Amino acid sequence: MSTTEVIYARVPTTLKEAADAYASERGKTLTAAVAELLGRGLAGASDERSVTELQASLSRATAEKADLEASLQTARAQVAALGTFAQQASRPVGKCPACKQQITGHDLLVSGACRRCGKTLSGLIAPPQTGSSLDQRELMILVGAVGVLLGIAYLTSK
Questions:
Q1: Model-level pTM?
Q2: Sign of CA dihedral 25, 27, 30, 35
Q3: Chain center to CA of 97
Q4: What are phi and psi of 128, to 5 degrees?
């Protein structure tokens, strides 16, 4: 059995009545009830810092979750946009001048050649060079490719 000490304290009447009621409800003496309540109160006071730290941690986790959910929504929108682009690029846009087979936007803008015969398709985008030192067809293809890359870069930055 542990040793006990005596604490004399004056308390408000309402606190004394509450302690009496607590002891009575639990079938304890007033001394045992006060000792239990005092112990629980001291434990709660020492745990107060831990509770504050847990609340701060929860707040940080909640903010991180909101950021991740926003990033996920952005990623979903990007995937949808790229999916739409891929779907549009897979549609037929014309016929190969060499083999007369259907070519797609991907054949024309991405690979630049017919997937069946390998014929270069840049002549379909811009007319052949007419004496200028700058190849207009290749420039148009380059500008189109840069536009696609900029669009993808823009989507990934959001």
A1: 0.44
A2: negative
A3: 47
A4: -60, 160
